[in-house]
Amino acid sequence: MIRGDFIGVRSVGNHLKKINWTVSHYQKNFILILLIASIPGLITGVLIYWLAVGAVEDELRKLHGDQIVQRAKNIDEQFRNLEYSASRWAIEPRFGESLRSIDLVKQFTESYDISKTLVRLQGTHPLIKDVDLYLEGEKNILFNSEYQLLKEKEISKFHQTLENGNIYWGHYPGKDQNESSLALIHTIPAASKHPFGSIIITINREKALDLLKTLTPYGKGATFILNGDNQVILSADNTNDQLFVSALKREITKHDEDKESFQFTFNKQIYSVSLGHLNRVDSDWKYVSAAPMSSITAPLVIVSRIILIISALALILAIIMSWFASYQIYTPIRNLMSKLMNETTGKWKPTGKDEFLLIEQQWEELSQRSHLLQNRLSEQVTEIKNSFVVQLVQGYFSHYKEEDLVKRMKSYGWVVENHQYIALDVKLTGLFESKDRFSNNDESLVTFLTANIMEELANEIFEQYNVIKFPDLSVGLLVVYPSGTMINEDIQRFANKVMDAVNEIINLQVIVSISESTNSIKKVHYLFEEMEKWKRLRIFENKNQIIDLKEMSSLKDINSFRYPFAVEKEIIQTIRMGHIEGIEKLIHQFLEELAENGRNEINIQQGIRQLYSSIQHEILHAGIHPHDLYNGKDMFEELTQVHTIESFTKWFIESIILPFNQRLEGRMNMELKRIVEKVVLLIQENYMNDISLDSCAEEAGTSPYSLSKAFKLIVGINFIDYLTDIRIQKAKELLLHSTMKINDIAETVGYRHSYFNRIFKKQMGIPPSQYRKLHQEKELLEIEKDS
Fold first, then answer.
1. What is the distance, to the nearest Å, from the Cα of residue 769 to the centroid of all Cα atoms in its chain?
2. Among 163, 190, 168, which Cα is nearest to 88's?
3. What is the pTM of this model?
4. CATH number of the domain at 91-207, out of 3.30.450.20, 3.60.21.10, 1.20.1530.20, 1.20.272.10?
5. Could you tell me if 197 and 187 are in contact, meaning their C-beta atoms sit under 8 angstroms apart?
6. Residue 655 Ramachandran class (φ > 0 left, ψ -120 to 50 alpha, else beta)
């Protein structure tokens, strides 16, 4: 081959000798090099200007739209918090039925407490300007910062707050007839068909407008909110042009309700208009944000100019650099040609022909030699031998005769006469638990590493062997050894060395399956099939194990299996009720009963799959598609990667149960609020009767546990504490404003006498009789002072 290279160089040298070198190819093509180097920069600048700038404009518009949506969500959340706060205030006992009959003039302390409460509530949210309490009765009263009797001409405008529903948004007339502010109104008592008053939350217009202006972040354009009747209830107009708002409203009616944004032209200026909905308790509001496109794309004006300047500078720089680069690139070629010419004439002069023709000839010759070497390598016996073994293990030669297979084995260099065959299967486990080192996508990597380890160890112990890589984290080994040789010790030693090496290097666990031996090549395929079948009887733990098929008789019967249906039913019921606190204990109990006949993988895997299928049925029954719940993940595939009971428990809770429970809780929040409001009204109407959490839950159509949890979340106190507070408040009224005996009062509010005394003292600090006596003495002293 070296001699051939020398002859080729000599022939090229003789050819060059005959050429008349007159003009440099470099000089001819220098102008072309300049154009090639310069034009792309110019083209790039133009493309960036016309295409990239347009793309950035689109991206800025999209970013602007996303900002509007996010800020609209913030506004929606502010109003939703107000509605939620109003609902909670309306169900407080202080604003309950007791206000219907209380004399707020005599009980000035109660009036003072109400005023203090309204002042406190006024500071709970930045959008609140005032919180008023209107009470309708023999005397129509308005609480603002103080107690106030309404005049006859004021009663009608406040009476209107009782006529439009339980909770709604409207315009509150205020103290001045000429003043009108956006307000959230909630009648009291909450959920009552015959309200006698209302809580009126007046919105701070300045702060609301500041919040609304966040939808026009560039300080230009207009933003307003329309109510269900398409009337503007809040408007932040930076254009100072009422015609613009009117034209924009008309334009909105022409577009599809579902369209979130569009462009609008007014007075030869283009605006980017964003639409969205704010779902309120009584209607559907719509926000409209219009910002001029010139404000959104203003940064691009400077950017586009910079791009043009940079493109021009890049063109000049390209010309300079192309001259320098072309000279440097040509230098080694000139040197090479000089060396070739020195071999013959000793001097080389430039020619008009392409100098790269010589390099091309040499490259073609080297390529031909490279292809020749590749063909020879592909014909190597080792590669064909490995391919043959893989096909043999997979059963592709089951129709061949034994004699034909023997001949092929001999042709590949095997010694097979008077020899036997034994197979090993090395299965890696623990990849699912070793997230710190490998991921599930590294299966081929760890399989490759294991195959290399087995190759080195087998070379030390066996004379004839072949390593086979499988795609399921398994590596096989086929060993050929002389008949009559005791190979069991070598096999065991090899298995132990593989386990130690894989544990140390890859940090994974190993299951080594050892087949029985055979003297027939055709039966090699069945050796691997048997190992695949019986290795499923491994102990379902992430630890090193050796399964010897010769000792399978000592294992328990594979068909002895009992499934814990009772525990499965309890797990399903626990998930259905949302009591996930004790689910881990139940799963452990399920696995313990499942493993009573031995922790074989086939038993555990089948039991786990059955349990997951049952839970999946519950998920489907709840109206949730598992594909959406688990983001399209193949949960059965993940199950195959779990190899310990502990990791299974963790996987089951974090990957299956918690996502399902969170989805259910999110869907049930609004329903629970409706149920709690119904139960609150039920307590207020039936507190004097024998009422309990169970009875209320049955009346509301839910479970006691769910009602208790929802009541605490929405009302803020436990069910029993709320019931006790209602009863104690009623008892205090009867003690102060009636002559009923304490025994009768206890029965009236739903208590036995002995328990009433105890619970009253626990709540108020003194017995009911002493409470009545102290307040009677206090009233006498006040009468004496007045007289």
1. 60
2. 190
3. 0.37
4. 3.30.450.20
5. yes
6. alpha
